[in-house]
Amino acid sequence: MRGINDLLKDSDSQLKNERVAVINKVSKGMNRRTKTIFGLFSLLIVVGVVLWFSGLHTARPNDNAKFVATAKVTRGDLARFVTISGELKPYQEIDLHAKVAGYLKFLTVDIGDQVKAGEVIAKIDTDELKADYENTTAAYEDAKLNYDRLNEVIQKQPGLLAQQDVDNAQAAYAIAKANMDRARTFMDYSTITVPFNGVVTKRYADPGAMIQASGSNDRQTMPVVHIAENDQLRLDFPVPEPDVPFIKVGMPIDVTITATGQKITGKVARTTNMVDSDTRTMETEVDVDNHDLRLTPGMYAYVNLGLENKKNVTTLPVQAVSLNGNPNVWKINDKNEIEEQPVEVGLQTADKIEILSGLKEGDQVVFGSREMVNIGMKVKPKLITTLKE
């Protein structure tokens, strides 16, 4: 009989064989699943590669097309303005001279003083003129008395006196009167009065100074004071020659005072109607009210002039039009190809230009630089939407 040990060995061997069978069975099942997963993964890779090549083949015709910035032809209002620098000046200003020579007896004003028309501000001490006036007055009275006596005699007793004597007396009387009037006028000249309302801006002399009579050349004589009319000012500004045809008397303008920032509206008051041959500009003036004296002559100002204004016209951005030589644009045709299109242009502003002919509303053209594209090139238009339409 077999022993217990032999039975145990047989039992262990059977268990080992059963475990090996189970492991082999599981291993075979896993190999089948692994192969299936690997096959599916390989199939996906093949399909992806095929689709990639297919898409690459489909996109090949557009490979050469570049994106290009474009602008669209639109309609709108255009207005052209020009800004010109000008200077505020007194409406009137003069150097006030004495008409007769003498010592300055008094001067009642100083710089900054407001003066009124007809106001006496200075007096010239002229003793010689006073003596001359007294002498001519006396001579006039004698001549008048003599003529009156002779005239009375000839009226009462005609023929008693020669008519020549009466005529001579009348002539002497007339001469004496003229001399007296002249002396009185010179006496009046010794008083210096203000010709218009204004302000004293300069003072050239003090009391006691010897003042020379002004002559034909005032540069040789010293003035007494300088007076400027500041309650109304002139704004002078030069208009460039190309803009001269658009300047009309009465046209509205906007003025900005540089120093104060004050904004004023006004109208063109006058022009020289002549272009200066040296500066190629036309001097233009605007009258500026300054009754509160807030503005000071010599201040600079900017004038904003509206020269042209057009409503509902065909426009393009300036950057879309070549103005070198004959104006033209690079138009995007129906095939998305670039073609050169001549255009006729009109009013141009800082950012827009009027298209008179050559394009219609809605057309797209190349915007900006043309260096990266060529005529005939197929492109992908990208409309610039940040432009103001």
Task: Please render the helix and strand layout as text.
Blueprint: H1 4-59, E1 66-72, E2 74-96, E3 102-107, E4 114-115, E5 120-125, H2 127-156, H3 163-189, E6 191-193, E7 198-203, E8 210-211, E9 225-240, E10 252-257, E11 263-271, E12 281-289, E13 300-317, E14 328-332, E15 338-342, E16 344-348, E17 352-357, E18 364-366, E19 379-383
Parallel strand pairs: 1-19
Antiparallel strand pairs: 1-18, 2-9, 2-13, 3-5, 3-8, 4-7, 5-6, 7-9, 9-12, 10-11, 10-13, 11-12, 13-17, 14-15, 16-17
Describe the structure in your own words.
- This protein is an alpha+beta fold and 389 residues long.
- The chain is 29% helix and 37% strand.
- The protein folds into four domains: 4-60; 67-77 and 311-383, conserved putative lor/sdh protein from methanococcus maripaludis s2 fold; 95-220, Beta Barrel (OB fold (Dihydrolipoamide Acetyltransferase, E2P)); 228-309, Beta Barrel (Elongation Factor Tu (Ef-tu), domain 3), CATH 2.40.30.170.
- It has helices at residues 4-59, 127-156, 163-189; strands spanning 66-72, 74-96, 102-107, 114-115, 120-125, 191-193, 198-203, 210-211, 225-240, 252-257, 263-271, 281-289, 300-317, 328-332, 338-342, 344-348, 352-357, 364-366, 379-383.
- Strand 14 and strand 15 (338-342) form a beta hairpin.
- Helix 2 (127-156) runs antiparallel to helix 3.
- It starts with a helix and ends in a 6-residue tail after the last strand.
